[in-house]
TrEMBL record:
It holds the Pfam family SpoIIE. This is Stage II sporulation protein E (SpoIIE). Residues 136-386 form the PPM-type phosphatase domain. Keywords: Hydrolase. InterPro entries: Bact_Sigma-Reg, PPM-type-like_dom_sf, PPM-type_phosphatase-like_dom. It comes from Micromonospora matsumotoense.
Length: 404
């Protein structure tokens, strides 16, 4: 019977003594403990288009496209995958919580053993955690995930972002942004404190370094206000003052959200941002009212303080927020991607039972393809789903029984 316990314990003891470059060798040394001859780590690139191998000197692998391979199917479907013509090889997703990092390839004569699935999940969970824990101590993971040179503006933004996906038993939040290597003006942040999930989505004016510098200030001011315990109105006011003080000729649109997980009560300030959409039962019910405040940095022109809009969510409701780079993307005929196309795409994907992170990955790929691979503006989308404990997230499975 295959058991990953010894391999996991050995890796947890050995990995902290090395850098991220050492992980491929360490993982392969653990292979015999799960009756494997080879174990290879593949990480998703920034665009989530390819799975790129993190190799030691003794192995040879090529990057694999996510769209057309079994490895990609494991990544997108969050399932263990086997090939009929290669029964000794399995692919298992690398997950940290619900954040998809890549896949683990395991080559083993015991791949067909039913016990291998559980062992593979256990090992993959350990490896994913080790990648996250060791990543800050070197650049190998960052270099590997970059298929193109990253501009300094994008370096600033990506260095400030939280994980793209976060979930608890009663909510899931997932985001996506493009262009990965030249993004500058879009940024987001979130935090869960007790019963309240706080989310901020921002779109700064301008492009390049100026936009990313403002984005850095905006998200830092947002975090500072939140950590000081300010309410939504005072948070918006604080960010507005910082923008006006440090960048008097610039501004940022924003969507500031608070969700009470126990009740489903949603509070929103829309500071000159495109309106978020309420999705229910596979349909767009309505656009949330807005703007309820001027863009951040222009608050001194307002005649009243920012207003908070409240909504009582139903179990299973989703909030879809986005920046104008999504809807304003233009095809070869000059037609905008538009709100109707955005809602239709998301609803069809969710109705097809795609996991929410996969829905967002496909959305941004569709927007990029619509604009022939070259976006004129940053494009960011965010999807927040609320389900109380008695109505668990349908696409999140109990890790103790199914591997996630």
């Amino acid at each position: 019977m295959v058991d990953a316990g010894d391999a996991v314990r050995w890796l947890q003891l050995a990995a902290p003594r090395g850098g991220p470059d050492d992980l491929p060798l360490l993982v392969n040394r653990a292979a015999p403990a799960v009756d494997a001859t080879e174990i290879v780590i593949y990480l998703a690139d920034y665009q989530q288009a390819s799975l790129v191998p993190l190799l030691d000197a003794g192995l040879d692998r090529e990057a694999l496209p996510i769209e057309t391979t079994l490895a990609g199917r494991a990544f997108t479907g969050l399932d263990v995958q086997r090939a009929a013509d290669s029964p000794d090889r399995i692919w298992v997703p690398l997950l940290v919580g619900c954040e998809r990092m890549g896949v683990l390839e395991i080559v083993s004569s015991a791949a067909g053993d039913p016990a291998m699935n559980e062992a593979a999940w256990e090992l993959a969970t350990c490896v994913a955690q080790l990648v996250v824990n060791r990543r800050p101590y070197g650049d190998v993971v960052e270099r590997l995930r970059r298929r193109l040179p990253m501009q300094v503006a994008a370096e600033i933004v990506w260095g400030l972002l939280p994980p793209l996906t976060f979930a608890t038993d009663d909510m899931l939040l997932t985001t996506i942004l493009e262009p990965c290597y030249d993004v500058g003006g879009d940024i987001f942040d979130y935090a869960l404190n007790g019963d309240v999930l706080s989310v901020g989505l921002f779109d700064t004016c301008g492009h390049g370094i100026k936009a990313s510098t403002l984005a850095s200030l905006v998200v830092s001011a947002y975090r500072n206000a939140r950590r000081c315990g300010l309410d939504l109105v005072d948070t918006a006011t604080s960010i507005d003052r910082w923008v006006r003080s440090e960048h008097p000729h610039m501004f940022a649109t924003a969507l500031l959200v608070e969700l009470e997980r126990s009740t489903g009560r949603l509070r929103v300030i829309n500071a000159g941002h495109p309106g978020a959409l309420l999705l229910r039962d596979g349909k767009a019910i309505r656009e949330l009212p807005g703007p309820t405040a001027l863009p951040l940095g222009l608050g001194h022109l307002a005649t009243h303080r920012p207003e908070v809009y409240e909504e009582e969510l139903h179990p299973g409701d989703r909030i879809l927020a986005y920046t104008d780079g999504i809807t304003d993307a233009r095809g070869v005929d000059g037609e905008r991607f538009g709100l109707t196309r955005l809602v239709d795409f998301v609803n069809r994907a969710l109705n097809d039972q795609l996991a929410t992170p996969e829905t967002m990955r496909r959305l941004v790929r569709a927007v990029v393809a619509y604009q022939s691979g070259q976006l004129d503006d940053d494009a960011t989308a965010l999807l927040l789903e609320w389900r109380p404990p008695h109505a668990p997230l349908s696409h999140l499975r109990d890790r103790t029984t199914t591997g996630l």
